[in-house]
Design a protein that fits this description.
101 residues; alpha+beta; elongated
């Protein structure tokens, strides 16, 4: 195999080598972020609500809990910034202010 050295020496400018083109090592897999595992004791109403959501959405309990936490974080941040949470009925246009106690 011929390789160009790119130097100014005409004798060494073309070098014959048995070494094939140097390959890059394969990329290392990125480590997966470690997830937190928790055990939660649900009150009966929350357990029923979780089951109803699971039946209605076909999502796993893990997915539902993750979504609930993300939604609560968003709502809490909005309320702390002074925003209102308003629910509007698409059919009637009626709005209701939602308050968290």
């Amino acid at each position: 195999m011929r390789a160009r050295t790119g130097g100014n020496d005409p004798v060494m400018d073309d070098v014959v080598t048995d070494n094939p083109v140097r390959q890059q090592p394969p990329p290392q897999p990125q480590p997966q972020p470690q997830s937190d595992r928790i055990t939660v004791a649900l009150i009966p109403q929350s357990a029923e609500d979780l089951q109803a959501l699971q039946d209605r959405t076909s999502l796993s309990k893990t997915d539902l809990v993750n979504r609930a936490i993300t939604l609560y974080e968003f709502i809490d941040a909005q309320l702390r910034e002074g925003h209102d949470l308003i629910v509007r009925d698409k059919k009637t246009g009626e709005t209701q202010l939602v308050r968290f106690l």
